[in-house]
Each structure stands twice: as C-alpha cells, then as structure tokens.
Amino acid sequence: MTGIETIIKIAGVGLLAAIINSILDKSDKRELSTFVTLTALVIVLVMVITMVADLLGTVKSLFNLF
Amino acid sequence: MEIIKVIGIAVLGMVCAGILKDVKPSLAAFAGIVTGIVILVSIVDELRYIVDQFVKIASIANVQDTMLLSILKIIGIGYCAEFTANLTDDYGVPSIGKKVLLAGKILILMLALPIVSSIIISISEIIK
C-alpha cells in the first residue's frame, strides 16, 4: 500500500504549478512561469525516478538478474 | 481480495492523471507511470511466492540450476523491457520503447542459446 500518497502528491504539485502560473500571468510576470513549470517537473521527476529505481531493484532481486 | 485494492489504486491514478491532463499535461504521464509502479509493488509478494514455488518444483524435478536460473532471468528481462516500453509509450515516444524491446529480445535469445544447444547435443547423442 506504499506509494499511493505519491500519486496524490504528483497531482498536487501539478495543480500548484498551474495555480502559481495563473497568478504570475495575472501580475504579468510571465517570464517566471517557465521556472515554476521547470521546478514542478524536476520535483515530480525525482519522485518518479526513486520509485522506478525501487521497482527495478525488487525485480532484479526477485529474478536474480545480477 | 487483492484485486479490489488494485482496482482502487487504478481508479485513483486515473482520476489524478485526468485532472493533470488539462491542468499540466506534461505531468499527466508521470501520474500514469507512478500508478503502474504502485500496482506492481502491491503484487510483488505474490510474485515472490510464485518464484519460490517455481524453484521448489524445479529442485524436485532435479532440473539443473543453470537452466532454471536462465529461465528466471529471461522472465525478468522480458518484464523489464515491457515495463520500459510502456513507460515510453505513456510519455509519447513509442519508438524508444520499440528499441528497448528489440534489445530485450536479443538478450533473451543470448540467454536461451545454451539451453537450445544442450538439447540439440543430447538429441544427437540419443540418435547415435
């Protein structure tokens, strides 16, 4: 059951980035919105990479693919 | 029942991916990928049990260890390649996934060759 909160975390990061972008657009600081999108992507990518590493680690130990 | 748990996780992931698709499309693919990983992690215990039973049956039928190990390795490689191919499909670049599948097939063939050759050698000895 571990990992369900990661899915919701990713949705949260996406929503937050969208809200911050719309705020930045309203206060016409459009150049900052690219950085917000970039940081959101990096955060989510780090989360996903660690999960993929765990999964492939278990598969490697399961089928002893050394 | 485990299947109910899996369905629950899948529905949750589907909803999150749907929300993200119109809010921030680049993150929607990640939601799908993470849902897949969570579902597989919840199935790993059953898979471990199956592999242990497989090894036990093989030791009863006194299959040589090398053959059993390469069979397990083939299953593992096939699964990892399939997982990566789905990953790249989700992100919209299926051509990379196909290359990974090709590499997986080649590696599986390399592992399967010793088994095939040993079978052929034993058959030729019987014919002599």
Describe the structure.
The complex is a heterodimer of chains A (66) and B (128). With 66 residues, chain A is mostly helical. Chain A has one domain (3-58). Chain A is 85% helix and 0% strand. Chain A has helices at residues 4-26, 30-62. The relative contact order of chain A is 0.11. The model of chain B has no long low-confidence stretch (mean pLDDT 89). Chain B is built from four helices and no strands. Chain B folds into two domains: 1-42; 47-128, no CATH class. The longest helix of chain B has 36 residues, at 25-60. Chain B is mainly alpha-helical and 128 residues long. At the A-B interface, helix 1 and helix 2 of A face helix 1, helix 2 and helix 3 of B.
Provide the low-confidence segments of chain B as ranges: none
User: Helix/strand/pairing class of chain A, anyone?
Assistant: mainly alpha
Oligomer category = heterodimer
Radius of gyration of chain B: 20 Å
Rg of chain A, alpha carbons: 17 Å
- The tally of beta strands of chain B, per DSSP, is 0
Q: How many structural domains can be distinguished in the coordinates of chain B?
A: 2
Large-scale geometry of chain B: elongated
Element-by-element helix/strand order of chain A: HH
Helix and strand element order of chain B: HHHH
Largest sheet entry of chain B: none
- What structural class do helix, strand and pairing data of chain B support? mainly alpha
Task: Give the structure's gist in a few sentences.
By secondary structure, chain A is mainly alpha-helical. Chain A contains 2 helices and no strands. The longest helix of chain A has 33 residues, at 30-62.
Key words describing this protein structure:
heterodimer; A: 66 residues; mainly alpha; 85% helix; B: 128 residues; 2 domains; 4 helices
